[in-house]
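Write out the 3D structure for:
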Amino acid sequence: QFLMANKLDTAMWISRLFTVYCSALFVLPLLGLHEAASFYQRALLANALTSALRLHQRLPHFQLSRAFLAQALLEDSCHYLLYSLIFVNSYPVTMSIFPVLLFSLLHAATYTKKVLDARSSNSLPFLRNLLEKLNANQQNILKFIACNEIFLMPATVFMLFSGQGSLLQPFIYYRFLTLRYSSRRNPYCRTLFTELRIVVEHLITKPACPVFVRRLCLSGISFISRLAPTVA
């Protein structure tokens, strides 16, 4: 009754569980490398479906207007719909599947707990314990996802020069990264950029750091800072 009363949430729960299943079979290619590539695409397509459903839930009344598009781009679900479209037809990259896998796992765990609560307050204690441990590590998981989002930017450039990516991919991914940096709901991308800058600045101020490395890092920090969008 709980599942039927929340059909859209249940559909997203099922698609997230399927995303976790496909992502796991890509990361751990138990059925062979050829099958792993197909599971990579299935995971991203399932994530695109979940993101589209979530976006519809957040913005139910679609309008073909600039204002609606601007509002949609503020939603995290729109960001990951774009993310899925960026990588779904690209060369499989293990690094790109982790954000999809971990976000799906976190959201699926939250809804699974609701399903268990609707069934009984004491049902499946072992599963409840696992869900609690996952929830306790949520902040670390979100930081890890943000780290993946950041380091995928140079990875897309590397893929371009190695012949495994398209010319447009780095530019579209840069747009995705600016959306994540400006996210209202998830500040972890901004936080990781700040933390990485502090770490690099701390390392290059040490006397053992060569002058040319210091200058190169400062130039890189200045360049990335200019590219960063302004956040309200």
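The chain is about 75% helix and 0% strand.
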